[in-house]
Design a protein that fits this description.
CATH topology of the largest domain in chain A: Vanillyl-alcohol Oxidase, Chain A, domain 3
CATH superfamily of the largest domain in chain A: FAD-linked oxidases, C-terminal domain
Helix content of chain A: 25-40%
Helix content of chain B: 25-40%
Distance between the termini of chain A: 37 Å
Number of helices of chain B: 6
Oligomer: heterodimer
Number of strands of chain A: 20
Shape of chain A: globular
Number of helices of chain A: 13
Radius of gyration of chain B: 16 Å
Number of domains of chain B: 1
C-alpha cells in the first residue's frame, strides 16, 4: 500500500499513464517511484517540517537535452509538475526536495559532462551534474593552471550553485557574475543558447557576456522559466602567489570596526576576495561540541564562549582573507591591511604554518585557493544530530548595519533557545550575512522552534529594510512577499513571464514564489 | 581513499553469539560483503573499529566521497554499516539512497550525565537482539552495536523504535552523540 502523494493536477490513472510514458523514454532504471528504496533520496534531510510536505511522487533522471524535450512533451500532455534539481545538494535551502508534495523531481545529476575547459581564455563549460569536486579533479588531472571557486561543501553542482546565486571565497566568488553563455530548454521544448551563443557560427560564446539584444541569463536563475542544461563559467588563472591570513578579534563589538575597515579595502580591491568575518562558534565547531562546554538548555552562555575562545586560541570574530599576486604586490598590500587591522585592540595575526592543527584554518585556506572540501559539515556536530537552515540577509557594508543585523539575529536566536552561528562577508559593495540556524533534527520540538524562529527573522529584517537573497522551500513565499514595492510589481512581472514561457505551469511551480496561473492565489 | 577494508560477514566471525545462533545463521546465509565505516573522533569509535575492520572517515570526509559514490553505484556491498557522528552519516546516506540502498537500521547514542540512551530504529527482531546485547555488554555498547549486520535477516522492512539506557560516561573529548546505521542493497 503506497502512501505516495500525487501531483494535484492528476488522477492516479493519469499519473500511472504519465509514468509509463516516461519509462518509454528513459527506461525502467531512470524512473523512480519506489518510496522506500528510491524516493527517500529526494528528502530534505534538514527539514524543519514533516517529510511528507515535500514528498515527490516520482523522480526521473534524463541524460540528454533530447530526453528532456521528450519529458516536457509528456509533462505538458498530463500537466505534470517537474521540480528541477542539479545534484540536489542545496541543503539548508531544501536540498533535492520539491516545493510541494506530489511533484516529479527532474534530477539532472546524470547530465554530468565537462564539455570544455579552455586554458587560454580561462573558462569551462559544464552540465548540471558536474560537482565542484568533479571539475577540480578534472583540472588537476589535466595539470591545468586554472582555479575553480567552490561553494563551501564541494559536492554541490557548479551550475546549480551559480543559478541559485551562490558564492565562493576566491576573487571569482560571485558565481553568477562569472557566468558567460547559457543553454536553456524552455517548457515548450525549444532549446535556447543565450548571448553570443545564439549566433550559429559563434566563437565568443563564453568570452563575451552580452551579445545583441537583452541579457536574459538572469531570468533563468532562482526561477522556473526554463531548464538550464549548460553554462559557461569563467575560471581564475592561478596567480603567481597566494598567502592566506587570519586575524582574530576578542570582542563581539569589534564587528563594527572590522566591517568599517574591510568595506573600503574591498571596494578598492586591496582585499580581492569575499573575505569573511566568522563568528566564534562557526569556527569552534570544527574542533569542539557544545556539550563539552555547556550541558544546559538554551544557547551557550558568554562564559562558555570565552572559555572556547581561550582554549582554541580564536576570537569572538575571526577574519579570513588572502593575498593574491606577485610577491612584491602582496608585500605591499599586506602593509596596508596590517596597519588597518592593528587599529583594533587585541587583533592577532596568523599565516600559513601558524595553526597546523586547526581544521578551521585549513578549510578556509583551501576555499580561498579554490580547493573544494566538505569540512563545513562539522558545524552540524555542534549539537548532537545537527541540521541547519540558513538565513541570508543583505545590507549596506557598514559597521552599524553589521552590528544591527548581528544583534537582531543573536537576540532572536537566543529567545528561541539557539546559538548564534554566523559569518559576514563583504561583497562588491554590500554586506553578506549568513546565519546558520543549527538545530537537532531528531528533536521534533526543536525543529518546530527553528521553523518559527526563522519566520520571525524574516519579519524582523523586513521591518528594517533588509532583504534575503535566497530562501528555503518553506519560506519562499514569505520572503517574496517582502519584495512588495509598488503593490508587488516585480512578482506580477515574474508571473507574466511565467505565463508566457510556461503556460501549462509545469516547471518547478512555486520556485521563489513564482506560481503558474492555475496555482496562484489572486 | 577508501581503504577497501571489507569483510565477508559470516556468523562465525561475530562475537557475542551463542554456538547455536552461529550455526543456525551460518547454515542459512551465504557470506555477505559488508563495508564498515567509522571515524577517529573519540574513544568509542576507536573501540568499535577494533571489533570490525572499519574504513575511517576523516574530519573532512572529502577524501572518501569519490570511492563511496563508486562503491554504491557498482552495488559492491550487500551491507554498508557504520558508527559515526551524524554529519558523516548524512554524507553517506546521500550516496546510499541515490543508489537504491535503503536504511534498515538507525541508532542514536546520546551521552548524558547519568549514562547513555540509545534510540534505535529497525525491525522488531533486530531491536530485540540489540537491546539484549546492550544490557549484556553493559558499558561496552559499541560491541553490541558491532554485531548488528549479523543479527538478522533484513527482509522485514517494518521499522519500529525502541529506547534503551545503559551505563556509560561522557568523555570530555568526545562528540557527545554518535549514530550507528546499516544500509542494505535493494534486491534486483
Amino acid at each position: 500500500m503506497t502512501t505516495k502523494p500525487l501531483p494535484d493536477s492528476l488522477s492516479r490513472e493519469q499519473f500511472e499513464q504519465a509514468v509509463a510514458e516516461l519509462r518509454e523514454v528513459l527506461g525502467q532504471d531512470r524512473v523512480f517511484t519506489d518510496d522506500v528504496n528510491e524516493l527517500r533520496a529526494y528528502r530534505d534531510v534538514y527539514a524543519t517540517t514533516a517529510d511528507d510536505l515535500h514528498m515527490p511522487s516520482a523522480a526521473i533522471a534524463p541524460e540528454s537535452v533530447e530526453e528532456i524535450q521528450k519529458i516536457l512533451k509528456i509533462a505538458r500532455k498530463y500537466i505534470v509538475p517537474l521540480w528541477t534539481i542539479s545534484t540536489g545538494k542545496n541543503f539548508a535551502y531544501g536540498g533535492p526536495a520539491p516545493r510541494k508534495a506530489g511533484y516529479v523531481v527532474l534530477d539532472l545529476k546524470r547530465m554530468n559532462r565537462i564539455i570544455e575547459v579552455n586554458e587560454k581564455y580561462g573558462y569551462a563549460v559544464v552540465e548540471p551534474g558536474v560537482s565542484y569536486f568533479d571539475l577540480y579533479n578534472y583540472l588537476q588531472a589535466k595539470n591545468s593552471k586554472l582555479w575553480i571557486d567552490p561553494a563551501a561543501p564541494g559536492w554541490g553542482s557548479v551550475l546549480g550553485n551559480l543559478t541559485e546565486h551562490g558564492a565562493g571565497y576566491t576573487p571569482y566568488g560571485d558565481h553568477f557574475l562569472m557566468n558567460c553563455g547559457m543553454q536553456v530548454v524552455l517548457a515548450d521544448g525549444t532549446v535556447v543558447e543565450t548571448g553570443m551563443g545564439s549566433s550559429a557560427q559563434s566563437n565568443t560564446t563564453h568570452l563575451h557576456k552580452y551579445g545583441h539584444g537583452p541579457v536574459v541569463e538572469g531570468l533563468f536563475t532562482q526561477s522556473n522559466f526554463g531548464i538550464v542544461t549548460k553554462i559557461g563559467i569563467w575560471l581564475m588563472p592561478e596567480p603567481p602567489g597566494y598567502r592566506p591570513y587570519m586575524v582574530t578579534f576578542p570582542r563581539e563589538e569589534d564587528l563594527y570596526q572590522i566591517t568599517e575597515i574591510v568595506a573600503p579595502l574591498r571596494l578598492n580591491m586591496l582585499i580581492p576576495n569575499a573575505a569573511t568575518t566568522v563568528g566564534l562558534i562557526w569556527d569552534a565547531c570544527q574542533r569542539v561540541t557544545k556539550k563539552q562546554y555547556y550541558q544546559g538548555k538554551g544557547p551557550a552562555p558568554p562564559s562558555a564562549l570565552k572559555k572556547i575562545a581561550k582554549d582554541l586560541d580564536i576570537g569572538m570574530w575571526n577574519f579570513y582573507g588572502a593575498l593574491y599576486g606577485p610577491p612584491p604586490m602582496m608585500d605591499n598590500n599586506w602593509k596596508i591591511l596590517e596597519e588597518a587591522f592593528r587599529s583594533i585592540p587585541g587583533a592577532k595575526f596568523y599565516f600559513e604554518g601558524d595553526r597546523p592543527n586547526d581544521p578551521a584554518w585549513k578549510y578556509r585556506a583551501q576555499l580561498m585557493q579554490g580547493i573544494p572540501n566538505m569540512a563545513e559539515f562539522s558545524i552540524m556536530n555542534w549539537v548532537g544530530s545537527g541540521a541547519h537552515i540558513d538565513f541570508a540577509p543583505r545590507s549596506p557594508a557598514t559597521g552599524e548595519d553589521a552590528m544591527n543585523q548581528f544583534t537582531i539575529i543573536r537576540d532572536r536566536a537566543h529567545e528561541y533557545g539557539f546559538d548564534y552561528i554566523g559569518e559576514f562577508l563583504v561583497g562588491w559593495r554590500e554586506l553578506l550575512d549568513v546565519f546558520m540556524l543549527v538545530f537537532d533534527r531528531t528533536d521534533e520540538e526543536e525543529r518546530r522552534r527553528a521553523h518559527e524562529c526563522f519566520g520571525k527573522l524574516i519579519e524582523d529584517h523586513a521591518k528594517q529594510g533588509y532583504g534575503e537573497y535566497r530562501a528555503h522551500l518553506d519560506f519562499m513565499d514569505q520572503i517574496a512577499a517582502t519584495y512588495n514595492w509598488n503593490d508587488g510589481a516585480l512578482w506580477r512581472m515574474h508571473h507574466q513571464i511565467k505565463d508566457a514561457l510556461d503556460p501549462d505551469g509545469i516547471l518547478s511551480p512555486g520556485k521563489m514564489a513564482i506560481w503558474p496561473k492555475r496555482l496562484r492565489k489572486e | 581513499m577508501l581503504s577497501r577494508r571489507v569483510f565477508l560477514l559470516s556468523a562465525f566471525a561475530m562475537p557475542g553469539l551463542s554456538m547455536l545462533q552461529r550455526m543456525t545463521m551460518a547454515s542459512e546465509r551465504e557470506p555477505a560483503k559488508v563495508l564498515v565505516l567509522s571515524e577517529n573522533s573519540c574513544a568509542d569509535t576507536q573501540v568499535f573499529s577494533s571489533y570490525l575492520p572499519a574504513t575511517q572517515i576523516e574530519a573532512d570526509p572529502s577524501s572518501i566521497l569519490q570511492d563511496l559514490d563508486n562503491s554504491f553505484r557498482q552495488r559492491e556491498y550487500e551491507f554498508v554499516f557504520g558508527l559515526s557522528r551524524d554529519s558523516n552519516f548524512v554524507v553517506v546516506e546521500q550516496y546510499a539512497q541515490s543508489s537504491s540502498y535503503s536504511l534498515a537500521y538507525h541508532g542514536v547514542h546520546k551521552y548524558d550525565v547519568d549514562g547513555m540512551s540509545h534510540s534505535l530504529k529497525g525491525n522488531k527482531e533486530v531491536l530485540e537482539s540489540v537491546s539484549t546485547q546492550l544490557v549484556k555488554t553493559a558499558g561496552h555498547w559499541t560491541r553490541a552495536i558491532s554485531q548488528i549486520p549479523a543479527l538478522s535477516n533484513y527482509q522485514d522492512r517494518q521499522l519500529c523504535s525502541r529506547l534503551s539506557n545503559t551505563v556509560g560516561s561522557c568523555s570530555a573529548e568526545g562528540p557527545g552523540q554518535l549514530v550507528s546505521w546499516l544500509f542494505i542493497r535493494k534486491q534486483t
